[in-house]
Amino acid sequence: MAEIMVSIICTAYNHEKFIQSALDSFINQKTNFDFEVLVHDDASTDNTANIIRKYEKEFPKIIKPIYQSENKFSKSVNLQKEIIAPIARGKYIALCEGDDYWIDEYKLQKQVDYLESHPGCTICFTNAYTEDQQHDNKRKIFLPRDNDEAKAFPEHDKDYNLDNAYEIKFAPTASYVYPRETYIKMSQNFVKCKNGDLQIRLMLMSAGYAHFINEVTCVYRINVFNSCETVWKKQSKSDGRDRCQMVLSMLDKVDSMTDGKHAEGLWRFKQINLISYISYCSSLKVLRNPDLSRAFQEISLKEKIKIALRVYLPSSVYNTLQELRGRLK
């Protein structure tokens, strides 16, 4: 049996409109090594599983499906850690959810070439396009996502460690490639965190560094019904605070694991989530907390006003204003 270099992990749930694009983009990869596709259908209620079965029949040496009879995600199961990674055979893991897809047929080859020649690198990612499902599949460049990221964004490839990881708050998950054994080892330190993509990136970086290839290799679909992104937009303030608190706990875990060697850089990342936490509160009285107060004082007046509006305006009004602002961009 040929050695598998990469295990592509694809999680799918009710992705009948999208899964074919994802699977085609995997099959069309041009590499000088073998890879497998571990596609996990989480008990979809639409035609997703049947589409996967079609590909399983046509490409039995590559497509290795996992079909669930009951939804595991709803039971808070970490699909990659608990179900998929333990049976992966690849030296490296590549991620792409069932509603995203790749557009560079040499994506895997480029990233594996870098990882093979730089053993200290524990995660490699690239740029991407976002594709808006509510606005005629309009595409935008993924990174940089805001003005703060634009200030530090490179025009070339760049390495990131925990000192400057805050410069990219959200990286395209569909571009992630990383060593499987490093992931399995570091995942033992995972704490509960709904921002699983961020947890993977920072935990892996605590064991090495991240390398960014400034090329667009994939597409990240936004405004997909029932995706984490759309669910989070509609979440209550209480849910938002809980999600931020999970990220803060994860950052504390990373700080502890690295003996405080990257405390300043992790504080910058922590500040981003503390500000988000404040925005999900119902009053600025929470600034009596020293960490929240420090984080708030270090941002611009414009950002302070934005946070105050988020705190005191009804969520429906604030979300409408944000949507209008997005359309005007």
Describe the structure.
The protein contains 13 helices and ten strands. The chain has 329 residues and is α/β, with parallel strands linked by helices. α10 packs across α11. The radius of gyration is 20 Å and the shape is globular. The N and C termini lie far apart (52 Å). The mean pLDDT is 92.
In short:
The chain is of the alpha/beta class and 329 residues long. The protein contains 13 helices and ten strands.
Shape, per Cα inertia axes: globular
Integer tally of domains = 2
- What share of the residues lie within helices? 40-55%
Kindly report the name of the CATH homologous superfamily of the largest domain.
Spore Coat Polysaccharide Biosynthesis Protein SpsA, Chain A
CATH domain class of the largest domain: Alpha Beta
Radius of gyration (Å): 20 Å
Low-pLDDT runs of 5+ residues are none
β-sheet strand percentage: 15-25%
Number of helices: 13
- Major β-sheet annotation: 5 strands, mixed
CATH topology of the largest domain, which one?
Spore Coat Polysaccharide Biosynthesis Protein SpsA, Chain A
